[in-house]
Amino acid sequence: MAVDIYIEGQRVDLFDDETIQVRSSVQDVRDISKIFTDFSQSFTVPASRRNNNIFKRYYNADVVNGFDARIRKDATIDIDTLDFKRGKISLIEVKIKENNPVHYRIVFYGDTVKIKDLLGDDKLQDLDWLDNFNHDYTDANVKLGLTTGLDFTVDSVTYTKAVCYPLLSYKRQFYFNSDSSDDTSTDELVNIAYNASKNNGVNFNELRPALNLPVLLQAITEKYGLTFTQNFFGSELFKQLYINIYNDKSDSLLNGLKLYEDVSGTPAIRQGNYSYGTTVTPKAGFENVEYRIKLEYNGSVVYESVAPITGTSPATVATGTLESGADYNVKASIITDSDFEFNADNTFITFGRSFPFVPTTVFNNSYTNQVIDLNANITTQIKDLKVYDFLTGLLKMFNLIITPQGEDLYINDLQSWYTEGQIYDVTQYIDTKSETVKKADIYNVLAFKFKESKSILADNWKQNNNKVYGNLEQRLEGLNDELIDGTTLDIQTIFENPIYERLIDTDNNNSTAIQYGLLADENAKAQVGNPFIMYLPSVNTSSNQIGFNNSTGGYEGLTTALMPSHSQQIDIPSFNINFGIEQNEYTGNYFEDTIYKRFFDDYISDIFSPNRRLFNFDAILPLRLKNKLKLNDRLVIKDRRYIINSITTNLTDYTEKLELINDIYDAPIAGDVINNSTITPDFKIYSSATQTDDFKYIGIDSITATKIDTGDGVSWLTLVNDTSSGVVSNISFTIDTNITGVDRAMQIQMVDAVNNPVYSLVQSGSGVTFDNTDIKFDSNLITWDNG
User: Fold this and answer.
1) Which of these, 631, 635, 644, lies nearest to 110 by C-alpha position?
2) How far is the C-alpha of 29 from the C-alpha of 399, rounded, in Å?
3) Which residues have C-beta within 8 Å of that of residue 548, sequence separation ≥ 6?
4) 139 sits in which H/E element
5) Helix, strand, coil % in the chain, rounded to nearest 5
6) Is 94 exposed, middle or buried (0-12, 13-18, 19+ CB in 10 A)?
7) Which H/E stretch holds residue 225?
8) What is the pLDDT of residue 472?
9) Which of 339, 373, 407 is the last residue of a domain?
10) N or C: which end of the chain has fewer CB within 10 A?
């Protein structure tokens, strides 16, 4: 076999005796840069003329526009002109001897590594495609987002419920009291029960958007040209998830800040005091809009409204000391959660320090027709989070794997990935005379953790239970309460896990249909915290209507709402995004279909099996198998099936070192459709005597053998064990004595819809010769009927 390495399409000269090894390994399920990557030990290539041109004489630092070793270059490894591996080459060093280059040392990396390089330090806020989901922050849009969700069409593709406004409060506590006399609505507390004669309820401008996770994933696809398979990402479990949109770096969550003055200069008086003031006058139709004023002097906030203002503001003045000898910079801003149009008059005055303290007016400025047109800008408001960290967070949380699949990136959960593998019998390629059996790696501490939430409900729950809601932590101990020998499996997500609350009607203590989330602390301060993901099931609230206030004083009762939930279905046992089993906030029951149960349980249980072993074999696999073998394939050696931990291929002598784990994987084995179901041996010649024999079928469990008539009948063979049991089975049969005097043949077929392999057999004739002297015919016993 001929091995060739190409760097950006240029073939590299190789040393004749250089050992090149490529290792494929299931080595880390928690890092995109490591998952299922192929990598080589570093190896050297000669400093030949061809290679010097490829590496542009990297050893000479004076070469202009030379080889950039900071960047990994596209590379392929070919065996007999066929692609074996695709990935990247990194140049490590050049060996110099007596002022001449001797060799270059390089390392090959698998395809998956390029994801980290591609994403770099980009953040979710850099995903410009998300601007297609910006929208006016109006009461109509917020109401639609709360009741049914907002649909968007981008490039002729409709994204249903792409943006929603779930029943989450970052400002004040919601409660429900059907008593019509309770119209409480303060900055800290509000009764959201609809009452036609009142106007207490949810104000549209206190709700914030949530973005559908598949939309966020599509934005990554659009920016980087990555295409993710829809195995896991196309599941309903994932498609129904949302991430909250709330950015703590903006003064107003929804771009409701208007910097309407920004003036710099040199005051005539360089020492003394200043007075900086404004008067704001709303335009017609905006007199009832709430707003706040913020004034700044040389980068410091010197005044900010404590309470919202409506109508014309009183003369707002900030005073302070001029910075000695310094220039000034003053700014004035309006902050509001509603569309707002206004005029403003601003004055900046300085005072000398010497009596009579005569004021000097630095400027009087008037600003007319100022407009704040609120817009929910997704890229501005989304969390300050790296794209790479977001993807890695999902991989960790759901125990996902990622592998190149043609031009796509295959992403699926570990259990499903294993079920899609093929099974190959490699017994004939294994050196069975030499194997090593080791103890497989094991964990002694399991830690599945969310980021800690500082919201009041989550914080109180932690104080009472001494752990974060939804976490799962366990120590695996043996006798005498000592930890078993092992390491820690630590899964730390980037997401926090707030607790939601099902409201009780305080008038009669009955449960309402309403569940909401309070994202404020005990001091009623918003806790922006870390991002969190949630389900948003639609709940009928016709029996507990929610009061809803719009921007013009309108008030109505809502009979449906999208409510935050850990469970796909808020009131029925279903998958929920907790690691551990927790009490469902809505029903009070325990929903057991958790992240751990769904995506980690089988994987962890197998690790702890006392029968689990790590086997090492030497092998020489045929090229046709080398090129198609994947890490989720299973290997059969003799009568035992294995999963692959790693394969190290020596491209110099064409050998493999297999690190395998005996397969006790407890998931449904959809992958038990063996890729190359076979029968061994598949042909045999038998003597004429009665005898029992068997053949080995390597394939699918519970397949029944079928006798095939090839012209000599089939009654002379009886199947004793006719059904496969497990992946490797012995099918046994008995053959009658052949007294026909002629050879006869038939087949036994295993119809498994894979290869339908056939066992063929031939039985020779009896070989009996008739000697008239030895054989007498007794006419008393044998008569001829001629009639």
Assistant:
1) 631
2) 7
3) 143, 146, 194, 201, 202, 204, 555, 556, 557, 558
4) helix 139-147
5) 15, 40, 45
6) buried
7) none
8) 92
9) 373
10) C
Tell me the three-class secondary structure of 539-557, residue by residue: EECCCCCEEEECCCCCEEE
Query: What are the tokens at 235?
Result: 């599941």
Domain count along the chain: 3
Question: Is the separation of the CB atoms in 757 and 682 below 8 Å?
Answer: yes
Hunting for tokens 């601003």 — which residue is that?
346
Would you call 217 helix, strand, or coil by DSSP?
helix
* Strands 487-496, 443-451: pairing kind: parallel
Q: What is the pLDDT of residue 173?
A: 93
Element (H, E) at 164: strand 157-164
Cα distances from 8 to residues 87, 90, 755, in angstroms, run: 10, 12, 40
For the chain, which residues score pLDDT lower than 50? 28-33, 35, 249-253, 666-674, 768-787
Question: What pLDDT does 407 receive?
Answer: 67
CA distance 394 to 413: 11
Render pLDDT for 38-65 as a digit per residue (tens, 0 to 9): 666 678 999 999 999 999 888 888 888 8
pLDDT of residue 83: 67
DSSP letter assigned to residue 97: E
What Cα–Cα distance (Å) separates residue 758 from each residue in 446, 608, 678, 711, 727?
49, 40, 8, 16, 17
Q: Is residue 629 part of a domain?
A: no
Angle 33-35-41 from CA coordinates, rounded to 5°: 75
What is the pLDDT at residue 766? 63
Instruction: Please give the backbone phi and psi of residue 414, each rounded to the nearest 5 degrees, phi first.
Output: -55, -45
Grouping H, G, I as helix, E, B as strand and the rest as coil, residue 427 is helix
Residue 21: predicted pLDDT:
77
Instruction: Answer whether residue 422 is part of any domain.
Output: no
**pLDDT at 667 (0 to 100):** 36
Backbone angles phi, psi at 114, to 5 degrees: -65, -20
Residue 658, token pair as written in the block: 């297999």
Domain boundary, last residue among 373, 394, 424? 373
CA distances from 720 to 370, 707, 731, 761 (A): 92, 12, 8, 16
pLDDT at 127: 95
Question: If you count them, how many residues does the chain have?
Answer: 787
User: Tokens 């004035």 label which residue?
Assistant: 332
Residue 701 lies in a domain: yes
Check which CATH number belongs to the domain holding 757 and give it. 2.60.40.10
| Both tokens assigned to 725 | 């049991």
* pLDDT of amino acid 497: 93
Gap between the Cα atoms of 516 and 530, Å rounded: 18
Q: Going along 651-766, which residue ranges are E strands?
A: 656-662, 678-680, 683-686, 691-698, 705-708, 717-721, 728-735, 744-750, 758-763
Please report whether residue 612 resides in a domain: no
CATH of the domain at 310: 2.60.120
Contact call for residues 557 and 549 (beta carbons, < 8 A): no
pLDDT score at 28: 42
pLDDT at position 11 is: 92
Whole-prediction pTM: 0.70
Range of the domain at 294: 257-373
The Cα–Cα gap between 171 and 206 comes to 7
Return phi, psi of residue 59, to 5°: -65, -20
Tell me the angle at which helices 213-224 and 387-398 cross, rounded to the nearest 10 degrees: 130
